[in-house]
């Protein structure tokens, strides 16, 4: 009987558990029903878009009106092209702001590449159909590398006391003039240039007040004033040597600037702000180069004064080198800053040298004559000539400052080397009595000239 109340209690509990389970089951089924109903509606909307939607795609009305908005930001509408107003309270991003260079950097850029008047040439950018230019300058050149020939010696010690080198090495002045025309926007041009140096005569003297003097030059085989010529040169009282040179150079060149503003020659030839810093140019042309060399060797065997008396004798050698030929050249320039450039110009050519040599031994008593051999009684006075090959090269290294559109100044160092010359030292014969040897032109000498120059250029 005890089991009866217990069983009733257990049945009651089972009934309550069943009821609870039924309640939960009905809640789950109801929830699923709502979800399925929403899914059907969503699928219906997806079919309206023509797509089998897996995620809900809201309509415009759902986005704008049905959806609740907790926070709304201000919206900036993009302006039409060409019209870009910005809201007054808009703050630009640092990445959008233009970069501002420091003032020092701006100044440096203006100094190294701005369009200033001094670099714009005769006209804007240095370009137009064509323009003329001309320059004039001064130069100082010398020839310290010239060879030397012994002339006088001390007859007690047989040591030399005078030589032709005693009159070498003098730097002499001259002029440098150019005129030309550029065309084709400065890409081409033609120029005529002349330069020359005119040194004064150089002189050296030796007296026999301390020792007797003699001549290294052997005048045996010649008579002067019915006496052997050697007697006028040896044991003499006074020897003197005088030398004199002059150089003239004339050239005509076709110029190539390699660009309107990056060229080398002509007016405003250095790279302006519109051109590169490194410019180049080339040239081809013809050149005439003349080298005159005079040598005079005097002796007085009676006193120390040269006054034109018959006891005085002179040996003269005069050479004229006339070089004519074709040359090519080119150069580079670098614009250090807007108005100042450094440049180097080189040119070289092969020339034909028509060398003329005059020789004579004479004095107030007349010409010396050959006293022995097949040419006896022949006066020692003649002119000889010969044409051979010569080489000439010139190098200019300098700087140029553009003062204004049409004015510039420049200066620098010039070196000129010439081979195949007939200089006076090389014409002295070993045997004065053998005229075929004495009359032979020896054109195998070389000469180096170097020095400085300054000038100004104007264009119009």
Sheet of most strands = 10 strands, antiparallel, barrel
Strand tally is 18
At the fourth level of CATH, the homologous superfamily of the largest domain is OMPT-like
Number of helices: 5
**CATH architecture name of the largest domain:** Beta Barrel
In whole angstroms, how far apart are the ends? Answer: 144 Å
- What's the assembly state of these chains? single chain
Give a verbal description of the structure.
The chain is an alpha+beta fold. It has two domains: about 5-60; about 115-460, OMPT-like (Lipocalin, Beta Barrel). The chain has helices at about 5-50, 60-65, 105-115, 230-235, 435-440, and strands spanning about 130-140, 150-155, 160-165, 170-185, 190-195, 200-205, 215, 220-225, 225-230, 240-255, 280-300, 310-335, 340-365, 365, 370, 380-400, 405-420, 445-460. A ten-stranded antiparallel barrel has the order 1-4-5-10-11-12-13-16-17-18. It is elongated and about 75 Å long. It starts with a helix and ends with a strand.
Please sum up the structure shown:
The chain is of the alpha+beta class.
Summarize the SSE layout with pairings:
Blueprint: H1 3-48, H2 60-66, H3 103-113, E1 130-142, E2 150-154, E3 159-163, E4 172-183, E5 188-197, E6 202-207, E7 213-215, E8 222-224, E9 227-228, H4 230-233, E10 238-256, E11 278-300, E12 312-337, E13 340-363, E14 366-367, E15 369-370, E16 381-402, E17 407-421, H5 435-438, E18 445-459
Antiparallel strand pairs: 1-4, 1-18, 2-3, 2-7, 4-5, 5-10, 6-10, 8-9, 8-15, 10-11, 11-12, 12-13, 13-14, 13-16, 16-17, 17-18
């Amino acid at each position: 009987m005890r089991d009866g109340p217990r069983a009733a209690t257990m049945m009651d509990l089972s009934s309550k558990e069943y009821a609870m389970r039924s309640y939960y089951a009905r809640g789950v089924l109801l929830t699923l029903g709502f979800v399925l109903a929403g899914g059907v509606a969503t699928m219906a909307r997806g079919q309206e878009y023509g797509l089998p939607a897996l995620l809900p795609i809201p309509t415009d009305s759902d986005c704008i009106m049905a959806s609740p908005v907790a926070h709304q930001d201000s919206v900036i509408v993009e302006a039409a092209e060409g019209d870009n107003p910005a809201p007054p309270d808009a703050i630009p991003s640092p990445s959008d702001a233009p970069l501002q260079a420091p003032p020092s950097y701006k100044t440096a850029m203006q100094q190294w590449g701005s369009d200033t008047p001094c670099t714009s040439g005769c006209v804007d950018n240095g370009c137009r159909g064509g323009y003329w230019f001309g320059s004039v300058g001064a130069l100082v050149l010398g020839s310290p590398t010239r060879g030397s020939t012994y002339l006088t010696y001390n007859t007690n010690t047989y040591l030399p006391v005078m030589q032709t080198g005693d009159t070498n090495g003098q730097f002499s002045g001259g002029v440098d003039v150019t005129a030309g025309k550029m065309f084709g926007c400065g890409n081409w041009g033609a120029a005529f240039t002349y330069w020359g140096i005119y040194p004064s005569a150089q002189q050296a003297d030796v007296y026999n007040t301390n020792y007797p003097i003699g001549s290294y030059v052997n005048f045996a085989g010649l008579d002067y004033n019915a006496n052997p010529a050697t007697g006028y040169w040896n044991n003499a009282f006074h020897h003197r040597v005088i030398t004199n040179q002059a150089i003239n150079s004339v050239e005509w060149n076709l110029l190539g600037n390699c660009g309107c503003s990056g060229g080398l020659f002509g007016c405003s030839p250095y790279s302006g702000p519109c051109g590169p810093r490194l410019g180049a140019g080339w040239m081809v042309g013809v050149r005439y180069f003349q080298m005159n060399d005079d040598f005079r060797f005097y002796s007085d065997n009676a006193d120390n004064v040269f006054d034109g008396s018959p006891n005085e004798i002179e040996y003269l050698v005069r050479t004229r080198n006339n070089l004519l030929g074709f040359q090519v050249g080119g150069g580079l320039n670098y614009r250090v800053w807007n108005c100042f450039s450094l440049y180097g110009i080189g040119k070289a050519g092969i020339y034909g040298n028509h060398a003329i040599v005059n020789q004579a031994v004479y004095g107030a008593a007349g010409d010396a004559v050959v006293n022995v051999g097949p040419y006896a009684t022949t006066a020692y006075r003649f002119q000889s000539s010969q044409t051979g090959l010569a080489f000439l090269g010139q190098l200019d290294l300098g700087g140029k400052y553009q003062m204004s559109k049409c004015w510039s100044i420049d200066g620098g160092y010039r070196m000129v080397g010439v081979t195949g010359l007939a200089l006076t030292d090389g014409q002295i014969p070993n045997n004065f009595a053998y005229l075929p040897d004495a009359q032979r032109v020896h054109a195998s000498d070389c000469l180096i000239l170097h020095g400085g120059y300054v000038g100004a250029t104007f264009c119009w």
